[in-house]
Amino acid sequence: MTVEILAIIYVFSTFILLLTGLPVGFVLSGSALLFSLIGHAFGLFDLAYLLALPNRIFGIMTNQNLLAVPMFIFMGLVLEKTKIAERLLISMNSIYMNTHGGYAISVVIVGALMGASTGIVGASVVTLGLLSLPIMIKNNYPASLSCGVICASGTLGQIIPPSLVLILLADVLSSAFQQAQLNMGIFSPETVTIADLFAGAIIPGIILPILYIIYLKSVSIEKQTFKTENIIKKSEFLTSFVPPISLILVVLGSIITGLATPSEAAALGVLGALIITTIQKKINYKIIKDCSDESIKLTSVIFMILIGATFFSLVFRGLDGEELINNIILDTDVDKTTTLIIILAMMFFLGFILDFIEIIFIVIPLFGPALFELGFDPVWIGILIAMVLQTSFLTPPFGFSIFYLRGVANDQIKTVDIYKGVVPFVVIQLVVILLIFIFPEIATILPKIIFN
Questions:
Q1: 164-183 and 194-218 are packed helices; what angle lies between their axes, rounded to 10 degrees?
Q2: Is the predicted pLDDT of residue 431 greater than 90, yes or no?
Q3: DSSP string covering 392-444, please?
Q4: How many whole angstroms separate alpha carbon 236 and alpha carbon 252?
Q5: Which of 443, 361, 353, 450 is nearest to 400 (CA)?
Q6: Does residue 85 surpass a pLDDT of 70?
Q7: 162 vs 199: CA distance, rounded Å
Q8: 3-state secondary structure of 320
Q9: Range 30-63 burial, b when 16+ CB lie within 10 A, else e
């Protein structure tokens, strides 16, 4: 057995184990340990590589950027559990309820705002589904359209900053980008920051909901006159709209302008969320405790996956896997654009079966350095990856957004309705990805303007 064959078996075996449903962090760590011992037994792996693991874990736990993760999660949970999003949806409907497709447009706008404030796709889809799906069905919206707009709007948090996806993506991309520069003999490597990706995601994050709304205005929806309860007066609109918008702008602006690090901005976001909910008398000890408990659980899962992925990539490098990938990507006759398309397509299809966190921590360290050695802009690559991962949330039959909505929809909503509803929004997503692919400036122009 050669080291290349063992590296290939290692990767495929790990992906198969991930499909078993076992905890991802333990699968990655266990697979890495097992194949390091197998490689050592065949004389193909030097166990001295594992001596670097404690330092890598220490580096993860002291990473200043990753400190923002638990605080952004806590901020999102506070806004979600205190019904800020619910009040915002009712408020938005008061503005649009008697316009063509008005409630669907309200769902898109609130989905975008929830994405920017919570960044948690599951929470956004479930909240929008519980609040808006019964009302839309009651007022004769097609079931498929209702389901599609909820699923699509709930995933906007993947691309609209401050997004948890972009935070995690920035850290992994930066490591891959620096490794690529070291491979090319550049020993003062540049980095990719969270602020770079936040700035790069702003224009795509605006284009996407606008195209959703254009589509909703173009389809045949009769003008609806809603007779729902809890419709607030237009004079109350500002009280539900301004606070979350202000919080988003403060958090995002402080990062992009350099006034605060991501962890400082996240702390500011938590403080702002607590102030808003306290003023509106929606916060109490139980909510704070529940948000803290869930934040600890989600953060633990993320960091366990990150540690497992670090162990996985360390063993893969020890099996000369990095050199194998470089030979496949850099030494073939396939042009670099085709190579990028193949890798993006692979991530897209992996999104059917793996969570975005797993794809970020497993796939990017494997292929990222080779991509950057081909000369691709890391911000452009990062936004393309974020968009592809977001699209995978919507893609039948295994899109996570579909499962979230299926879990809260009543029996009158058929699964095929959800499938039909998401298809137009998947097409819109692919159009935006194509636009970013053809015109990289969509993702790179703002970072260049702001940071130059």
A1: 130
A2: yes
A3: HTT-TTT-HHHHHHHHHS-TTS-HHHHHHHHHHHHHHHHHHHHHHHH-THHHH
A4: 25
A5: 353
A6: no
A7: 10
A8: coil
A9: bbbeebbebbeeeebbeeebbeebeeeeeeeeee
Q: What is the CA radius of gyration of the chain?
A: 22
- The C-alpha angle with vertex 416 and arms to 426 and 97, in degrees rounded to 5, equals 70
Alpha carbons 195 and 54: distance in angstroms, whole number = 29
Phi, psi of 101 (to 5 degrees): 65, 25
296: tokens are 């600890």
Cβ contacts of 401 within 8 Å, gap of 6 or more: 121, 125, 151, 152, 154, 155, 393, 394, 422
Supply the pLDDT for residue 32.
92
Cα–Cα separations (whole angstroms), residue 274 to 161, 278, 319, 346, 363:
20, 6, 49, 41, 37
Q: From CA 200, how far away is CA 195, in angstroms rounded?
A: 8
Long-range residue pairs from 371-374, CB within 8 A, at least 24 positions apart, any chain? 371/176, 371/180, 371/329, 371/339, 371/340, 371/343, 372/176, 372/177, 372/180, 372/181, 373/180, 373/183, 373/184, 373/326, 373/330, 374/329, 374/330, 374/336, 374/339, 374/340
Q: Which of 449, 117, 77 is nearest to 252 (CA)?
A: 117
Cα atoms in the 13 Å half-sphere on the side-chain side of 140: 9
Number of residues assigned to the chain: 452
Alpha-carbon distance values, 341 to 96, 151, 272, 299, 395 (Å): 40, 26, 41, 32, 18
C-alpha pair distances (Å), 174 with each of 30, 171, 177, 192: 26, 5, 5, 5
Q: What is the largest CA-CA distance in the chain?
A: 74
Q: How far is CA 27 from CA 24, 33, 60, 185, 366, in A?
A: 5, 10, 19, 34, 17
Measure the CA–CA gap between 378 and 364, rounded to whole angstroms: 12
Which tokens go with 284?
Answer: 């109490």
- pLDDT-derived band at 219, boundaries 50, 70, 90: confident
> One-letter amino acid identity for 336?
K
Is the pTM above the cut of 0.70?
yes
Give the pLDDT mean for 61-87.
Answer: 78
281-294 pLDDT per residue, tens: 888 888 899 989 98
Helix axis angle for 68-81 and 164-183, nearest 10°, is: 160
- 225-274 pLDDT, tens digit per residue, is 444 544 556 566 677 777 877 887 888 788 878 788 888 888 888 898 89
CA angle 294, 270, 387 (to 5 degrees): 75
* Residue 137 to residues 105, 148, 157, Cα–Cα distance (Å): 15, 13, 25
